[in-house]
Amino acid sequence: MKAKSPIFWPLTGLLALVLLNAVHDPGFLKVTLLDGHLYGVPVDILTQGSRTMLVALGMTLVIATGGVDLSVGSVVAIAGAVCAVLLQGGHNLAVTLAAAVGAGLVAGTANGLLVARLGVQPIVATLILMVAGRGVAQLIVDGQVIIITHPTFDFLANGFLLGLPFAPLLVAALYLAAHLGLRRTALGLFIEAVGDNETASRFAGLAAARIKLVAYLFCGACAGLAGVLAAANIRAADAYRAGENMELDAIFAVVVGGTALTGGRFVILGTAIGALLIQTLTTTMYNLGVPPAIAPVPKALLIIGVSLLQSDKVGRWLGGLFGKKAAA
Amino acid sequence: MPELLELRGIGKTFPGVTALAGVDFTVRAGEIHALLGENGAGKSTLIKVLTGVHPADAGEIRLAGQVIRPGAPKEAERLGISTVYQEVNLVPSLSVAENITLGRQPGRLGCLNWRAIRRRAVAALARLEVECDVDAELGSLSVALQQMVAIARALDTSARLLVLDEPTASLDEKEVAELFGIMRKLRAEGLGIVFVTHFLDQVYAVSDRLTVLRNGQLVGEYATADLSRLALVGKMLGREVSAADFTSHAAPPRAAASPVLAARGLSRRGAIAPVDLSLSAGEVVGLGGLLGSGRTETARLLFGIDAADGGQISLKGAPVRIDSPRDAVQLGLAFCSEDRKAEGILPNLSVRENLILALQGKRGLRRALSRSEQEQLCSHYIAALRIKTPGAETPIRNLSGGNQQKVLLARWLATQPAVIILDEPTRGIDIGAKQEIEQLIAKLRDDGLAVLFISSEIDEVVRNCSRVLVLRERRLTGEVAGAGLNSESLMHLMAGTHEG
User: Fold this and answer.
1) What is the DSSP string of A10-43?
2) How close A49 gets to chain B, by Cα (Å)?
3) A192: nearest CA partner in chain B
4) Is the per-residue pLDDT at B416 higher than 60?
5) Has this prediction a pTM greater than 0.90?
6) What number of CA atoms fall less than 13 Å from residue B495's CA on the CB side?
7) B370 lies in which domain range?
8) Residue B7: in which H helix or E strand, if any?
9) Which chain B positions have a beta carbon within 8 Å of A192's beta carbon?
10) In a domain, B401, yes or no
11) What is the 3-state secondary structure (H, E, C) of B36-89?
């Protein structure tokens, strides 16, 4: 009996949701070419979903080591604040980007050292920065929302390359790079090994602490870059709202995508699909005119649904149901 | 005697594997019934069917004449079938009393009656005549005491049938004797006891009747007294065994070659007093001693798992620092831990990934083994060590204990070590696999490896080693080699001379 691909259910969910939308509004899938650029709801979903996809990419590795990083939303806010202050201070884009990603790396280092070297529980360790990080972001922008006026910076989130939206292209390239980096080297195996049984991995000669640190560093860098995209998207740094609840969306995307919260085996492609699923749902609710206040409810229902489908127990139960039907 | 438990025609199939086919199993009240078979024979599956972990696909279970269909361990427990599993399944951070009553605490309206909890725990332990502080944290007790607590917990319900799944795997001889005392006492009280074990001595010491399984099928049921040891082994292996299979694998001690690995004054406070030892290429050196004598502690110091307080390790004459297992692996050491589940396998990863892990770790991140290199290694070791697995991509948790152990051995052999430390490599695995592993150790020695062999089975140490270091109460008490090496001399050293 061949095991089902881990991305089967998230992909089914995504397609079902797209189908539902297409039935409700035949214009949903329509993509038009205007001034040499692609426009349409699917393009919007990709563009708006790119930030969650990016944060969830880093989160996948942290969760695979058996941890979790709650601080990514705050890191998004910090990176956005860094961008605003540097760009408005007249620094060039390269320095700004390096500083934003660098801020993410610093955050990742702090999380990683707490978890990997000092043995603090990941939830607690990253909760510290989740709470403190937003304060740091406020400090950087001095409590103001800073408007950013920089055409190239704006391009990162809202621009088009060869007619295609730039942000999703960038994120897709990063997914590809991450996939190659993880699977062409032994890093992917090491992360899965440490997540599955840390003691055994250490006894087999792996540098378990260093491997975990790498995962948190990568997660921090992804969050930093997502902060750049978030600030560029609204052309402003809003330390209060930027990246709000993003850690939850990212965790949802990872789990829905087929990576278990207990660590071990990870599925990068599943994470991308999970993030798109969540973004599609958000967009759907906008289109249906669902008030933002109750928007989390359908999201929760969807997540419960996909999680149930992935559970072995429910799978067996469903299998039994259909098996009986087939026999009858 | 009345039939307490009757299993008739039990069948169980897992995806791709028929674990049990038409197995009958009968236990009478007031008897100790041994359940025997090689790894993969179906013992564990039969126990799991009986205790409601897996529902049977076919057949019928009767307890005291009534047909039962336990759908969950809790249900089986309520019916009077209590189980103590091979690995202690308790909560280390809770107290002894809490562990004994967990899930059935006396109390009302969600409030616990702590006095009743303690009283019941004390009573449960008193029944077994075990002395133990019921307020102590379970994790602070020795494994043996934890096992007793697990039995006390199992008997806390109105048990009619007690299932002991390899209860002696981590006990020393004195503790085994205590356990047998308890088993005999319970037998006298009219309990039926199912006793799963790999130790034939224990089968003959304590059981009344026995049932042998092989490849998921019933071989037969016998009165223990009527079946000779050799015949029993034959039934388990499915072949006639000649006495030659149990001959010594040990080579004569070599003339003092220059040691590959040597330690001087290696020590750690609370773990082991200063130890000197040396290992030469092509030599199997035993590290003997009772449980808790400091055998594993010594191995952990050598492999850099625990930091030594003092002492010096040298490799091929040059002093080396070993601060972590990583250092040790880079220097060509290998260590098979006694705790396969916690310190050995990556349960959800494949046989392939488990097998290549140490070699890949030694090569580092960047020099990744290609998929074809990995598959080549796997097919080589699966064939060479006769690992029974549906394929290299099967998760290792689906393999039997003996086959998991072989994969872990392969993991280390793939790194081509100069020194390999084997801590209880045959624990919890059956006779056939045991022999294979012993033969393998002899082969490694002939290939020029230095082997440090740790075992609590004296016969096994005598069979495999050309020289044995004996530890007692966390210090090195002696060394025997050559003609002086026999089980008597070893027991002498292990127990201390006054008991000899």
Assistant:
1) HHHHHHHHHHHHHHH-GGGG-EEEETTEEEEHHH
2) 31
3) B349
4) yes
5) no
6) 14
7) 344-415
8) strand B3-14
9) 346, 349, 353
10) yes
11) ECCCCCCHHHHHHHHCCCCCCCEEEEEECCEEECCCCHHHHHHHCEEEECCCCC
